[in-house]
Design brief:
By secondary structure, the protein is mainly alpha-helical. It is built from 20 helices and two strands.
Length: 483
């Protein structure tokens, strides 16, 4: 049954890609869907890009085991800060200002808002260097589940995912990506609800489930390993505020049809995030009812195997097929957005922006499709070979990208006195802190490093802006028109 689900799903993705190709005639169509995306599809595009297979397989299992029910604070942050507040604070202003400035990407926005071509090139390079490895890390979320259930080699899973994602992304662009995101979002909601209901039933007690989970957590985790306030708060901050500065998330605001759809999209995104995050982290915390210790691989605890093994051992075959589609959907939607943004950094921001500004519409569209294909293949080889440098870039990518962009982007939306040099200083600060402190402190402190990379630029940008040349009145009038 699971194989039938999988085949039908993949065929549907290809059909959507072919349909999207017929609607895509320009680079604006390919990257933003001609700014014509409605509220429900915009909401699901945001949500499915936010929550990849990493949350269902690695992150929910790790936090659920190590944090217990405290992991639900992360779910609350993702829902009410990463989804609800993000749409309220960023949605309208981003849609209006990017249309005023006639920009399609984060690097283009930074260039036009601050009138700095070097800023655009710097931003494009950050996206290319750090988001391609991040897209490769999304592949890894599938390996244990598919290996354990289908007994399909990891390489085969990767190759299948690359081919299908590449087809619908390269052919259909943003039209295809958002429609598949909507379908994948429906599958994700159905999958997580089925997963929670089945596992609660398998827990085998009519007593207080939360009390049982707390009791088992205390039995399994030494008191000196309980998470402290700083540890929990930093995770909430990184995974919730961090998305405000990620180009693949911000792009969803650029593409919405008009400002009237924002209210509906805000509500739908919040409900989607609530269902997905609370279900995922609750299942992670429930692992204490099924295991006395994490599975072992090569004599070491393998926390990443907790959720895959839990599902394989407790979920019936028919519903397991739905959950497999849930994980595959989460991965493919996130991956397609990452690849599209990475390809745009080269094709729109560097090639069309600097190398060949007079490129024809057809040539520009071909270039972004070609580069999307290149980056899909590149991500496959990164995930397959696990090169040490690339693994390091995966670990720092979220913090570096969010830290580099969030402060210049938010100040650009709200503070007219932000200057070009202030934006440059903020981007450079986020990059240096994200990479430098990671190399100094190591991966165990990656959450703290990411938080510092996001916070410090919010101090640097206004300080530098107060002592450097203010932007022109003409620029500000154009950027803030209608705001």
């Amino acid at each position: 049954m699971a194989v039938i689900y999988l085949v039908l799903f993949l065929i549907m993705m290809v059909i959507i890609g072919i349909w999207g190709a017929r609607k895509t005639t320009s680079i604006n169509d390919f990257f933003l869907g001609n700014r014509s995306i409605g509220p429900w599809i915009s909401a699901f595009a945001y949500g499915t890009t936010y929550f990849s297979a990493v949350i269902f397989i690695g992150f929910a299992g790790k936090l659920g085991w190590e944090f217990g029910l405290n992991a639900l604070w992360v779910a609350a942050g993702n829902t009410f800060i990463g989804a609800l507040l993000a749409w309220i604070v960023l949605g309208k202003r981003t849609r209006t200002m990017t249309k005023n400035l006639e920009v399609m990407t984060m690097p283009e926005f930074l260039q036009e808002r601050y009138q700095g071509k070097t800023l655009k090139m710097f931003a494009a390079l950050i996206i290319f260097i750090f988001l391609v490895p991040y897209s490769a890390s999304v592949f890894k979320g599938l390996s244990y589940l598919f290996e354990g259930y289908f007994h399909i080699p990891y390489d085969t899973v990767l190759l299948l995912m690359v081919i299908i994602t590449g087809i619908y992304l390269i052919l259909g662009g943003y039209f295809a990506v958002t429609l598949t995101d909507f379908i994948q979002g429906i599958l994700m909601i159905g999958g997580v609800l089925a997963m929670v209901i089945i596992l609660i039933g398998k827990a085998g007690s009519s007593g207080d489930l939360f009390a049982m989970m707390r009791q088992k957590y205390v039995e399994h985790i030494p008191s000196n390993k309980f998470p402290g306030f700083i540890q929990v708060a930093s995770l909430v901050f990184m995974t919730s505020f961090g998305v405000w500065g990620l180009p693949q998330m911000v792009q969803k605001f650029y593409a919405i049809k008009n400002e009237k759809v924002i209210k509906t999209a805000t509500i739908v995104t919040t409900v989607f995030a609530l269902v997905i995050t609370f279900s995922a982290y609750f299942v992670g915390a429930m692992s204490h009812l099924f295991y006395d210790a994490p599975p072992m691989v090569d004599g070491k605890p393998a926390i990443d195997r907790l959720i895959p093994d839990l599902l394989i051992n407790n979920v019936p075959d028919g519903l397991m097929g739905l959950i497999l589609l849930l994980v595959l959907s989460a991965s493919m939607s996130t991956l397609s957005s990452l690849i599209m943004v990475s390809a745009s950094a080269i094709s729109i921001d560097l090639y069309q922006g600097h190398i060949n500004p007079n490129a024809s519409k057809e040539k520009a569209l071909f270039m972004i499709r070609f580069l999307s294909a290149v980056f899909v293949v590149f991500s496959y080889f990164i995930a397959r070979n696990q090169i040490s440098l690339i693994v390091t870039l995966m670990s720092v990518s979220w913090g570096v990208v969010a830290g580099s962009f969030m402060a210049p982007y938010l100040y650009g939306l709200y503070w007219k006195k932000t200057t070009l040099w202030g934006a440059k200083a903020g981007m450079f600060t986020g990059l240096i802190i994200g990479v430098g402190l990671f190399l100094l402190w190591g991966p165990k402190q990656s959450t703290i490093v990411a938080c510092l990379a996001m916070i410090v630029p919010f101090i640097v940008v206004p300080v530098v802006s107060l002592f450097t040349k203010a932007p022109s009145k003409e620029l500000l009038d154009k950027a803030f028109k209608g705001i």
